[in-house]
């Protein structure tokens, strides 16, 4: 692995006693130095017998043992450096750890750690990081310390990360029975505890090196990036998002034989950063260079010569142009970050990226019998590899505040001949007289978008009601049935609307007003990256204010673009992963070959699963809302088509549950229902029996469930045929293959809200999925009451727990600690430190935002209900729980929170399949 020879690599880990948060041990392993290189610092208050056993073990295992009194000023890293680098030969330290801020606290001392946290020098978002190397005085020498927290590479545990790179943690689970009381474990099994403690740090460097090598293999061998441009141990990003975004950026820059020539074109179409220290010099360099170089051959010669002598006077401006700081480049002016900063017209709404479909499709019920769990196969991955990534500036539509808007009809009439499938979006708003449930709304103002654009991105990604968190634009993503507010139309959505909507429905949809739009137009497309670079270099256009007057802006820069097929990026990753998965299962493969194949396919999976997120995110220059919205729109269309053809009860991004006994069927003489009829599954049956409900493929599924279930093996095929038959009448086809989780076929299921459900499978297994809640098995913590509610429903009970309080356990992150310290509130959390386990009591509330909303006002009324009024808690529909869940649910359907009891309500929920 390429690395810095003047750098120390030190891995660290600590253990503490959870009940009283008292420190026990901190371990260090130093890589690349002469022994001693393994250190174990132990709380001096342990018993003498424990000390004797540890000293003996340390001598046998070549581990330096020292017993110390931990206090807020003790710097154990200083002790380590004094022994491994007594003369200050090394200048920098790479500190490896996994997840816990306590590992940093116990390494350098709380006083120094808290100082660095308060100063912003150490941060903790997904993982712990140092935006810039931190200067620490160790052994009377100054070192630059970079924290490398590997938690950013995995959603799970250290063991899962180790397994994913083919490293085995031998002693990882030996102390599991003492996890909640580690001090007893240290006293009872001192040497085993020591081996367990030192084991993690011994492997941290191996895991780090293995991950780096796997990343380099993906970038070089699979994607085809030049090996010299691949990441190494010093510069590899420490989060999966940053890693995959940077890899996509490297791939884009590798699409031209001369990467500096492509870099020049990217910068010529870019926007300088006016806050950069050398901005004036950069501006002069930009103006001079873009005027001087209009010929690719001359530019190529000077770029080559400049590489030989970067200090040559004649290349001074060109050199500055190539290293100047830019806010945006030629491929980053269609991303969330760019559009969110538009303040003078409605183009800011192009910053919105709508999430997947997450909807309770039949909120009038909450039970489903004899059913299956269906998914769109490889939903986002398969969509990604079919799309192209556009390189160049898009054409953008935005309206001034006082300017009349175009209707969707007018916009399409002017532009549709120029639109390229999957490379345009148009955002619309308007009222409808009919109901529809295909186009979602984003309830946000331009002020909120602009505020996010200056750095106030919405970080509330753990909110169980949020489905659009990747773009980090605040505001609700809601399905409003008789209004559209900032709804996004793409080629896939428009195709479905035209195929399904009645004449009156399509007329009203085309009468909605265009808020904003963005597209890569067909006439601006060029055939190759070479042609794109040549066109950009020769371009005389510019972005400027005529005579410097505000409001007299013109942008004459070229809109030429070239499409980079994502099949050459995502497709290569998917194909290689499929090959390795087959190799892993091959009987002829050796155990070592299988292990390596598994590690490689895990690395590929990480890249594949992260690719969509980085295109939708505001944090990366490769972000592109056109591509992101077309991908999510295709997924939403797929989930919508599944629902209409199968009557799924809940749509959750790429699938849902449905009853095998009652799928919708269109008779040959049926008049095709439009959007309004399709928008409510309970209205499917008609008086003439041309729209009916039948068992899927006319199979007696209840009997099949009770027998050997052989027909279930054909479920994918039978369901695909049914879906195709349903949509063939409309001239449509599902844009995805489908697959069932056969282990989740169920005899009964309960579901509430948008995404809470319980499946009781054919095998008798209970499968819970409750957003934002943990099951807390084998714990004295109180579970979310929805667990008990769903259990009661499947057991045909109407009981809703009277006590709706539950426990939420989490580890305090650095950001939360800062919030607590700077706040006048949180009295119970003031004394907690980052990494402490905190348990908060919460109370469940049952609202009805998941039940059909016809207008934005109706949704906002429901969503704006307060949980506290004048300091007193306010209950929502759970106030009716004494009369049972059916009463609570009936009041939800009525949207009635009126005081008093209303028994025997005729709107009580149905308990049917």
TrEMBL record:
GO MF term (any one): DNA binding
Keyword annotations: Coiled coil, DNA-directed DNA polymerase, Nucleotidyltransferase, Transferase
Coiled-coil region: 566-593
Lineage: Bacteria, Bacillati, Cyanobacteriota, Cyanophyceae, Nostocales
Name of the molecule in the record: DNA-directed DNA polymerase
EC number of this enzyme: 2.7.7.7
Organism, as annotated: Nostoc minutum NIES-26
Keyword RNA-binding: no
Pfam families associated with the record: DNA_pol_B (PF00136)
